[in-house]
Fold this sequence. Notes:
The protein is α/β, with parallel strands linked by helices. The protein has 2 domains: 3-51 and 387-436, Urease, subunit C, domain 1 (Roll); 54-373, Metal-dependent hydrolases (TIM Barrel, Alpha-Beta Barrel). The protein has 14 helices and 18 strands. The chain has helices at residues 80-93, 96-112, 138-150, 182-193, 214-221, 237-247, 251-259, 275-284, 292-297, 305-310, 327-342, 358-373, 407-413, 441-453; strands at residues 3-12, 15-24, 30-35, 44-45, 50-51, 54-59, 115-122, 153-160, 200-202, 204-206, 229-233, 265-269, 287-290, 315-317, 389-392, 420-425, 428-432, 435-436. Helix 2 (96-112) packs across helix 14 (441-453) and helix 4 (182-193) runs parallel beside helix 5. The longest helix is centred in the N-terminal third of the chain and has 17 residues, at 96-112. The radius of gyration is 21 Å and the shape is globular. The mean pLDDT is 96.
Amino acid sequence: xxxxxxxxxxxxxxxxxxxxxxxxxxxxxxxxxxxxxxxxxxxxxxxxxxxxxxxxxxxxxxxxxxxxxxxxxxxxxxxxxxxxxxxxxxxxxxxxxxxxxxxxxxxxxxxxxxxxxxxxxxxxxxxxxxxxxxxxxxxxxxxxxxxxxxxxxxxxxxxxxxxxxxxxxxxxxxxxxxxxxxxxxxxxxxxxxxxxxxxxxxxxxxxxxxxxxxxxxxxxxxxxxxxxxxxxxxxxxxxxxxxxxxxxxxxxxxxxxxxxxxxxxxxxxxxxxxxxxxxxxxxxxxxxxxxxxxxxxxxxxxxxxxxxxxxxxxxxxxxxxxxxxxxxxxxxxxxxxxxxxxxxxxxxxxxxxxxxxxxxxxxxxxxxxxxxxxxxxxxxxxxxxxxxxxxxxxxxxxxxxxxxxxxxxxxxxxxxxxxxxxxxxxxxxxxxxxxxxxxxxxxxxxxxxxxxxxxx
Length: 456
């Protein structure tokens, strides 16, 4: 199915370009992109400027069912660990059918929020009592079906998850649905990759250093090839302290010394990083995935964004627990956290390097790094990349009247409500005039939420 579109403006190679003709080939990838082109009669004239879609590089889809439901404090203290205990109640209850309904709603929201691919860090593997499903991929298929329902691309990352902590050789009972070793993860990855499903890719993940034994991490990585490898690391100070006690090294320090990360690796959160650790990651070629809205919601802390950027480390973004489901807000809080901490403005800008626009620098980094995190060799508005695009609604109040060259600035920092009018994935429209193309996703989501929480 060929799709020929003409856009008045498009974001190509880090800048706005006028009068752009875009041809999506039968394979769902860009076959031709021409700037300064007249609109041929057969082309669809798009009603606004065009951006490439971003990759949501870190997602736990089932946690969408918990968004907004942990915002009360009943005890003297509340932190990441108490939130996690409450989150596990959802993990222990949700069925494959409910997971599909919740994930489909999430994925539809992510499309509205400007994401066209999502990396699913998937550790929910077994039945509620911890027994194995007849098909070990039952919950993975629920997520793949949900992605197909919504029309988003999906990178599945089955997770190695063995133990509750450095000093705890087994999982807690409330983690019984997560149990997996290297052989199981590799089998899940092969099953997903070999399914032939369109828009589905598969890599692997390690939950964290506290949750996986070094020998099992080595077994997982042996002969893995060029697949994406994701890991939670240094999200919490308690995790850093535990790692120091157990190994004598901080988590990022241990990874860089012992696991030899490279460009396949995505270090999720990397919140508590020293300058030496940032330099070590930069030398390794690994990327980081920052999840500002979740890290703020959970009180994780602020990583050194200026340090990561200055070191040239690839930096993607993720929505993680899905308290926010749009990339403009993630980029906004990526910058605002630094402003609050440093009492400065436009921290992420680099005028000396010819990048004075904060939004453009952050967007460009997230665009390039997100594609790699999801397992793509090419990503964005370029020939050979998948034919994804976002059409901006310049009538949205946050964009109305904004000079054309400042649209990306306003998109990130003027808090528009519904900035993306239309969304294309692999040459097919999945959102038109702010409306999804077909399906009853919201109805199924509402029913699943009622079943999950009616007696909670």
